Amino acid sequence: MNTPTPTSPPLAPSSVRLGVLVPLTRPGWVEAGRHLLAGLDLAVREVNDAGGIGGRPLELVVRDTAADPARAAAAVEELAGLGVAAVAGEYHSVVARAAAARAAALGVPLLCSSAVLDGLTEEPTEWVARLAPAQSHGWRIYADFLLGAGRRRIAVVTQPSVYWASGTRVLRDHLVPRGGTVVELDSNAFTPEALCDALVERGATALLLLVGSPEPAVPIVRAVRGDRRLAEILIGAPAGQPEFAGWAAALGDDGAGIPFLRYLPERLGPLGERVGKQLRERLGEAPSFVAYEGWDTVAVLAEVLRSRGTDRAAIAASWPRVAVEGTRGPIRFSRTPGISVWQWAWPPIHVADRDPTEPDRFRILHAG
To answer: How far is CA 319 from CA 61, 130, 134, in A?
Structure first.
Protein backbone atom coordinates (compact mmCIF):
# COMPACT_ATOMS: atom_id res chain seq x y z
CA MET A 1 0.00 0.00 0.00
CA ASN A 2 1.41 3.30 -0.99
CA THR A 3 1.53 5.97 1.65
CA PRO A 4 0.49 9.37 0.30
CA THR A 5 3.44 11.72 0.04
CA PRO A 6 2.94 14.91 2.06
CA THR A 7 2.65 17.93 -0.17
CA SER A 8 3.51 21.52 0.58
CA PRO A 9 0.70 24.06 0.46
CA PRO A 10 0.60 25.96 -2.85
CA LEU A 11 2.66 29.09 -2.89
CA ALA A 12 0.69 32.32 -2.70
CA PRO A 13 0.82 34.17 -6.00
CA SER A 14 3.39 36.93 -6.05
CA SER A 15 1.92 40.40 -5.82
CA VAL A 16 1.87 43.09 -8.48
CA ARG A 17 3.56 46.03 -6.81
CA LEU A 18 2.77 49.70 -7.34
CA GLY A 19 5.03 52.39 -5.94
CA VAL A 20 3.20 55.23 -4.22
CA LEU A 21 4.45 58.74 -3.42
CA VAL A 22 2.53 60.75 -0.82
CA PRO A 23 3.35 63.53 1.66
CA LEU A 24 2.83 61.99 5.09
CA THR A 25 5.05 64.21 7.26
CA ARG A 26 5.68 67.94 7.50
CA PRO A 27 6.51 70.15 5.74
CA GLY A 28 4.34 68.19 3.33
CA TRP A 29 0.61 68.80 3.29
CA VAL A 30 -0.08 65.82 5.52
CA GLU A 31 -3.87 66.04 5.38
CA ALA A 32 -3.81 65.89 1.58
CA GLY A 33 -1.41 62.95 1.72
CA ARG A 34 -3.70 61.08 4.10
CA HIS A 35 -6.70 61.57 1.82
CA LEU A 36 -4.75 60.57 -1.28
CA LEU A 37 -3.49 57.40 0.38
CA ALA A 38 -6.99 56.53 1.64
CA GLY A 39 -8.32 56.64 -1.92
CA LEU A 40 -5.43 54.59 -3.28
CA ASP A 41 -5.74 51.98 -0.54
CA LEU A 42 -9.53 51.64 -0.83
CA ALA A 43 -9.28 51.02 -4.57
CA VAL A 44 -6.54 48.42 -4.10
CA ARG A 45 -8.69 46.55 -1.60
CA GLU A 46 -11.57 46.53 -4.08
CA VAL A 47 -9.29 45.27 -6.86
CA ASN A 48 -8.03 42.45 -4.64
CA ASP A 49 -11.53 41.53 -3.46
CA ALA A 50 -12.43 41.11 -7.14
CA GLY A 51 -9.53 38.73 -7.80
CA GLY A 52 -6.59 41.06 -8.15
CA ILE A 53 -4.60 41.29 -11.38
CA GLY A 54 -4.91 37.92 -13.11
CA GLY A 55 -5.19 36.25 -9.73
CA ARG A 56 -2.25 38.15 -8.26
CA PRO A 57 -2.88 40.62 -5.43
CA LEU A 58 -2.15 44.28 -6.02
CA GLU A 59 0.21 45.75 -3.42
CA LEU A 60 1.10 49.36 -2.64
CA VAL A 61 4.70 50.17 -1.72
CA VAL A 62 4.35 53.56 -0.04
CA ARG A 63 7.05 56.19 0.31
CA ASP A 64 6.67 59.49 2.17
CA THR A 65 7.93 62.46 0.13
CA ALA A 66 7.51 65.06 2.92
CA ALA A 67 7.20 67.68 0.12
CA ASP A 68 10.90 67.17 -0.72
CA PRO A 69 11.72 66.90 -4.45
CA ALA A 70 15.07 65.20 -3.85
CA ARG A 71 13.46 62.68 -1.54
CA ALA A 72 10.80 61.93 -4.16
CA ALA A 73 13.37 61.40 -6.91
CA ALA A 74 15.32 59.04 -4.65
CA ALA A 75 12.12 57.16 -3.82
CA VAL A 76 11.37 56.64 -7.52
CA GLU A 77 14.84 55.16 -7.99
CA GLU A 78 14.38 52.88 -4.98
CA LEU A 79 10.93 51.76 -6.13
CA ALA A 80 12.26 51.05 -9.63
CA GLY A 81 14.89 48.80 -8.05
CA LEU A 82 12.20 47.00 -6.07
CA GLY A 83 10.51 46.01 -9.32
CA VAL A 84 7.28 48.00 -9.14
CA ALA A 85 5.21 47.93 -12.31
CA ALA A 86 4.48 51.66 -12.07
CA VAL A 87 4.61 54.60 -9.68
CA ALA A 88 1.55 56.61 -8.66
CA GLY A 89 0.47 59.51 -6.50
CA GLU A 90 2.03 62.70 -5.19
CA TYR A 91 0.21 65.88 -4.27
CA HIS A 92 2.81 68.68 -4.41
CA SER A 93 3.53 69.91 -7.93
CA VAL A 94 7.23 70.67 -7.46
CA VAL A 95 7.74 67.26 -5.87
CA ALA A 96 5.80 65.52 -8.63
CA ARG A 97 7.95 67.28 -11.22
CA ALA A 98 11.12 65.79 -9.68
CA ALA A 99 9.50 62.35 -9.50
CA ALA A 100 8.30 62.55 -13.11
CA ALA A 101 11.74 63.51 -14.38
CA ARG A 102 13.34 60.57 -12.59
CA ALA A 103 10.64 58.13 -13.70
CA ALA A 104 11.02 59.18 -17.33
CA ALA A 105 14.80 58.84 -17.12
CA LEU A 106 14.54 55.34 -15.63
CA GLY A 107 11.75 54.13 -17.93
CA VAL A 108 9.19 53.67 -15.15
CA PRO A 109 5.56 54.61 -15.90
CA LEU A 110 4.18 57.21 -13.51
CA LEU A 111 0.53 58.19 -13.08
CA CYS A 112 0.36 61.52 -11.27
CA SER A 113 -2.76 61.81 -9.13
CA SER A 114 -2.93 65.39 -7.90
CA ALA A 115 -0.11 67.72 -9.00
CA VAL A 116 -1.16 70.36 -11.53
CA LEU A 117 1.97 72.23 -12.67
CA ASP A 118 1.80 72.49 -16.47
CA GLY A 119 5.49 71.73 -16.97
CA LEU A 120 5.49 68.43 -15.12
CA THR A 121 8.46 67.40 -17.26
CA GLU A 122 10.93 69.58 -19.16
CA GLU A 123 10.42 67.65 -22.40
CA PRO A 124 7.44 65.63 -23.71
CA THR A 125 7.51 62.09 -22.39
CA GLU A 126 5.60 58.88 -23.03
CA TRP A 127 6.22 57.58 -19.50
CA VAL A 128 4.04 59.98 -17.49
CA ALA A 129 0.28 60.52 -17.39
CA ARG A 130 -1.77 62.79 -15.14
CA LEU A 131 -5.29 62.80 -13.72
CA ALA A 132 -5.36 66.29 -12.19
CA PRO A 133 -6.05 69.23 -14.52
CA ALA A 134 -3.17 71.42 -15.62
CA GLN A 135 -2.78 74.57 -13.55
CA SER A 136 -3.30 76.83 -16.57
CA HIS A 137 -6.71 75.24 -17.19
CA GLY A 138 -8.01 75.29 -13.62
CA TRP A 139 -6.67 78.70 -12.67
CA ARG A 140 -8.15 80.32 -15.78
CA ILE A 141 -11.51 79.01 -14.61
CA TYR A 142 -10.81 80.62 -11.23
CA ALA A 143 -9.90 83.91 -12.94
CA ASP A 144 -13.21 83.81 -14.82
CA PHE A 145 -14.97 83.39 -11.48
CA LEU A 146 -13.21 86.49 -10.12
CA LEU A 147 -14.25 88.55 -13.15
CA GLY A 148 -17.82 87.30 -12.89
CA ALA A 149 -17.87 88.33 -9.24
CA GLY A 150 -16.73 91.84 -10.18
CA ARG A 151 -13.27 91.43 -8.62
CA ARG A 152 -10.67 93.06 -10.85
CA ARG A 153 -8.07 94.53 -8.49
CA ILE A 154 -6.40 91.33 -7.39
CA ALA A 155 -3.62 91.06 -4.80
CA VAL A 156 -1.78 87.77 -4.47
CA VAL A 157 0.25 87.03 -1.36
CA THR A 158 2.95 84.56 -2.32
CA GLN A 159 5.85 82.43 -1.17
CA PRO A 160 8.88 81.60 -3.34
CA SER A 161 7.91 78.56 -5.41
CA VAL A 162 7.72 77.53 -9.05
CA TYR A 163 4.12 76.51 -8.39
CA TRP A 164 3.01 79.84 -6.93
CA ALA A 165 4.92 81.79 -9.57
CA SER A 166 3.25 79.75 -12.31
CA GLY A 167 -0.17 80.37 -10.77
CA THR A 168 0.46 84.11 -10.57
CA ARG A 169 1.47 84.15 -14.23
CA VAL A 170 -1.70 82.29 -15.27
CA LEU A 171 -3.87 84.75 -13.36
CA ARG A 172 -2.08 87.80 -14.75
CA ASP A 173 -2.15 86.54 -18.34
CA HIS A 174 -5.89 85.90 -18.10
CA LEU A 175 -7.02 88.89 -16.03
CA VAL A 176 -5.00 91.80 -17.39
CA PRO A 177 -6.34 91.60 -20.98
CA ARG A 178 -9.84 91.61 -19.48
CA GLY A 179 -9.37 94.77 -17.43
CA GLY A 180 -7.99 93.25 -14.26
CA THR A 181 -4.81 94.00 -12.34
CA VAL A 182 -2.62 91.64 -10.36
CA VAL A 183 -0.16 92.84 -7.72
CA GLU A 184 2.20 90.47 -5.89
CA LEU A 185 2.91 90.78 -2.17
CA ASP A 186 5.70 88.63 -0.74
CA SER A 187 4.49 86.97 2.46
CA ASN A 188 8.05 87.04 3.82
CA ALA A 189 8.15 90.85 3.55
CA PHE A 190 4.94 91.58 5.49
CA THR A 191 3.50 90.77 8.87
CA PRO A 192 -0.21 89.92 8.57
CA GLU A 193 -1.06 93.37 9.91
CA ALA A 194 1.28 95.12 7.46
CA LEU A 195 -0.24 93.06 4.67
CA CYS A 196 -3.66 94.47 5.59
CA ASP A 197 -2.25 98.00 5.30
CA ALA A 198 -0.85 97.16 1.85
CA LEU A 199 -4.21 95.83 0.68
CA VAL A 200 -5.95 99.03 1.77
CA GLU A 201 -3.31 101.21 0.09
CA ARG A 202 -3.66 99.35 -3.19
CA GLY A 203 -7.47 99.28 -3.16
CA ALA A 204 -7.51 95.50 -3.64
CA THR A 205 -10.93 93.91 -4.08
CA ALA A 206 -9.61 90.35 -3.73
CA LEU A 207 -6.71 88.72 -1.91
CA LEU A 208 -5.56 85.31 -3.14
CA LEU A 209 -3.61 83.08 -0.77
CA LEU A 210 -0.75 81.62 -2.80
CA VAL A 211 0.94 80.36 0.35
CA GLY A 212 1.18 77.26 2.47
CA SER A 213 -1.29 76.16 5.10
CA PRO A 214 -1.57 76.47 8.07
CA GLU A 215 1.41 78.86 8.00
CA PRO A 216 1.25 81.57 6.85
CA ALA A 217 -2.28 81.26 5.44
CA VAL A 218 -4.16 80.97 8.74
CA PRO A 219 -2.66 84.09 10.43
CA ILE A 220 -3.23 86.08 7.23
CA VAL A 221 -6.90 85.12 7.09
CA ARG A 222 -7.39 85.99 10.76
CA ALA A 223 -5.78 89.40 10.27
CA VAL A 224 -7.81 90.26 7.17
CA ARG A 225 -11.07 89.07 8.71
CA GLY A 226 -10.37 91.18 11.78
CA ASP A 227 -9.63 94.39 9.85
CA ARG A 228 -12.79 96.47 9.39
CA ARG A 229 -11.20 98.35 6.49
CA LEU A 230 -11.21 95.07 4.52
CA ALA A 231 -14.75 93.97 5.30
CA GLU A 232 -15.66 93.87 1.59
CA ILE A 233 -12.54 92.16 0.26
CA LEU A 234 -12.85 88.63 -1.12
CA ILE A 235 -10.28 86.17 0.19
CA GLY A 236 -9.59 83.34 -2.23
CA ALA A 237 -7.47 80.19 -2.22
CA PRO A 238 -7.35 78.66 -5.70
CA ALA A 239 -4.96 75.89 -4.59
CA GLY A 240 -7.68 74.33 -2.43
CA GLN A 241 -6.64 74.93 1.17
CA PRO A 242 -10.25 75.26 2.46
CA GLU A 243 -11.16 71.80 1.10
CA PHE A 244 -9.73 70.06 4.14
CA ALA A 245 -11.21 69.71 7.60
CA GLY A 246 -8.02 71.05 9.18
CA TRP A 247 -8.74 74.44 7.59
CA ALA A 248 -12.15 74.64 9.22
CA ALA A 249 -10.74 73.42 12.55
CA ALA A 250 -8.03 76.10 12.52
CA LEU A 251 -10.19 79.02 11.41
CA GLY A 252 -13.79 78.23 12.35
CA ASP A 253 -16.18 80.75 10.84
CA ASP A 254 -13.27 82.83 9.52
CA GLY A 255 -12.41 79.98 7.13
CA ALA A 256 -15.81 80.06 5.39
CA GLY A 257 -16.61 82.10 2.31
CA ILE A 258 -13.13 81.60 0.80
CA PRO A 259 -13.52 80.27 -2.77
CA PHE A 260 -11.20 77.54 -4.02
CA LEU A 261 -10.84 75.14 -6.93
CA ARG A 262 -12.41 71.74 -6.45
CA TYR A 263 -11.90 68.90 -8.93
CA LEU A 264 -15.32 67.30 -8.58
CA PRO A 265 -18.53 67.32 -10.63
CA GLU A 266 -21.44 69.34 -9.35
CA ARG A 267 -23.11 66.03 -8.51
CA LEU A 268 -21.42 62.63 -8.15
CA GLY A 269 -22.79 59.65 -10.05
CA PRO A 270 -23.55 56.23 -8.48
CA LEU A 271 -19.89 55.13 -8.49
CA GLY A 272 -18.73 58.37 -6.92
CA GLU A 273 -21.47 58.20 -4.29
CA ARG A 274 -20.54 54.63 -3.36
CA VAL A 275 -16.81 55.35 -3.16
CA GLY A 276 -17.45 58.59 -1.28
CA LYS A 277 -19.43 56.76 1.39
CA GLN A 278 -16.62 54.23 1.90
CA LEU A 279 -13.98 56.97 1.99
CA ARG A 280 -15.95 58.85 4.63
CA GLU A 281 -16.01 55.71 6.78
CA ARG A 282 -12.26 55.26 6.39
CA LEU A 283 -11.30 58.87 6.99
CA GLY A 284 -13.86 59.68 9.68
CA GLU A 285 -14.68 62.88 7.77
CA ALA A 286 -15.91 64.02 4.38
CA PRO A 287 -13.50 62.90 1.65
CA SER A 288 -11.75 65.65 -0.30
CA PHE A 289 -11.43 65.62 -4.07
CA VAL A 290 -7.87 64.38 -3.45
CA ALA A 291 -9.24 61.11 -2.02
CA TYR A 292 -11.26 60.58 -5.21
CA GLU A 293 -8.11 61.26 -7.24
CA GLY A 294 -6.42 58.44 -5.32
CA TRP A 295 -9.21 55.96 -6.07
CA ASP A 296 -9.27 56.92 -9.74
CA THR A 297 -5.49 56.45 -9.97
CA VAL A 298 -5.70 52.80 -8.97
CA ALA A 299 -8.77 52.24 -11.16
CA VAL A 300 -6.76 53.36 -14.19
CA LEU A 301 -3.65 51.37 -13.32
CA ALA A 302 -5.60 48.22 -12.49
CA GLU A 303 -7.31 48.31 -15.87
CA VAL A 304 -3.99 48.86 -17.65
CA LEU A 305 -2.35 46.01 -15.73
CA ARG A 306 -5.20 43.62 -16.54
CA SER A 307 -5.06 44.40 -20.24
CA ARG A 308 -1.34 45.01 -20.81
CA GLY A 309 0.44 43.08 -18.07
CA THR A 310 3.27 44.36 -15.89
CA ASP A 311 5.82 45.21 -18.55
CA ARG A 312 6.72 48.85 -17.96
CA ALA A 313 7.03 49.82 -21.60
CA ALA A 314 3.65 48.23 -22.36
CA ILE A 315 2.06 50.18 -19.50
CA ALA A 316 3.47 53.48 -20.78
CA ALA A 317 2.33 52.66 -24.31
CA SER A 318 -1.22 52.13 -23.06
CA TRP A 319 -1.94 55.71 -21.87
CA PRO A 320 -3.68 56.76 -25.12
CA ARG A 321 -5.85 53.60 -25.03
CA VAL A 322 -7.15 54.05 -21.48
CA ALA A 323 -10.94 54.16 -21.14
CA VAL A 324 -11.94 53.82 -17.48
CA GLU A 325 -15.02 54.88 -15.55
CA GLY A 326 -13.76 56.91 -12.60
CA THR A 327 -15.54 58.35 -9.61
CA ARG A 328 -15.76 61.72 -11.37
CA GLY A 329 -16.53 60.59 -14.91
CA PRO A 330 -14.98 58.70 -17.84
CA ILE A 331 -11.18 58.91 -17.87
CA ARG A 332 -9.20 59.10 -21.11
CA PHE A 333 -5.75 60.54 -21.78
CA SER A 334 -4.69 62.67 -24.70
CA ARG A 335 -1.93 64.99 -25.82
CA THR A 336 -2.91 68.53 -24.88
CA PRO A 337 -1.12 71.60 -26.31
CA GLY A 338 1.44 72.97 -23.88
CA ILE A 339 1.33 69.88 -21.63
CA SER A 340 4.32 67.54 -21.73
CA VAL A 341 2.59 64.41 -20.35
CA TRP A 342 -0.49 62.36 -21.18
CA GLN A 343 -3.36 64.34 -19.72
CA TRP A 344 -6.97 63.67 -18.69
CA ALA A 345 -8.52 66.70 -20.40
CA TRP A 346 -10.36 67.45 -18.33
CA PRO A 347 -11.63 66.24 -14.97
CA PRO A 348 -14.66 68.20 -13.76
CA ILE A 349 -13.83 71.49 -12.02
CA HIS A 350 -15.84 73.98 -10.03
CA VAL A 351 -15.17 76.89 -7.68
CA ALA A 352 -16.61 76.29 -4.21
CA ASP A 353 -16.46 77.68 -0.71
CA ARG A 354 -17.55 76.72 2.77
CA ASP A 355 -20.99 78.13 3.44
CA PRO A 356 -20.68 80.96 6.01
CA THR A 357 -23.99 79.87 7.57
CA GLU A 358 -22.88 76.22 7.79
CA PRO A 359 -19.08 75.88 7.42
CA ASP A 360 -19.17 72.10 7.05
CA ARG A 361 -21.25 72.46 3.87
CA PHE A 362 -19.77 73.44 0.51
CA ARG A 363 -21.42 75.80 -1.95
CA ILE A 364 -20.73 75.67 -5.70
CA LEU A 365 -20.11 79.22 -6.92
CA HIS A 366 -18.92 78.67 -10.49
CA ALA A 367 -18.60 75.63 -12.78
CA GLY A 368 -15.76 75.30 -15.26
So the answer is: 22, 10, 17
Separation of alpha carbons 43 and 36, rounded Å: 11
3-state secondary structure of 37: helix
Characterize the bridge pairing of strands 86-89 and 324-326. unpaired
CA R_g for the chain: 22
**Could you write out the three-class secondary structure of 62-109?**
EEECCCCHHHHHHHHHHHHHCCCCEEEECCCHHHHHHHHHHHHHHCCC
Instruction: Provide the phi-psi class of 240: left if phi over 0, else alpha when psi is between -120 and 50, else beta.
Output: left
Instruction: Say if residues 123 and 341 touch (Cβ distance below 8 Å).
Output: no
The answer to whether the beta carbons of residues 202 and 229 sit under 8 Å apart is: no
Over the stretch 140-195, which tens digit does the pLDDT of each residue have?
A: 999 999 999 999 999 999 999 999 999 999 999 999 999 999 999 999 999 999 99
Q: Are 105 and 325 in contact (CB under 8 A)?
A: no
Pairing assessment for the beta strands 153-158 and 260-262 based on DSSP bridges: unpaired
Which one-letter amino acid corresponds to residue 7?
T
- For residues 351 and 223, give the distance between their C-alpha atoms in angstroms, rounded to a whole number: 24
The CB density around residue 329, as the number of other CB atoms within 10 Å, is: 18
Q: Give Cβ neighbours of residue 329 (< 8 Å, ≥ 6 apart).
A: 265, 269, 347, 348
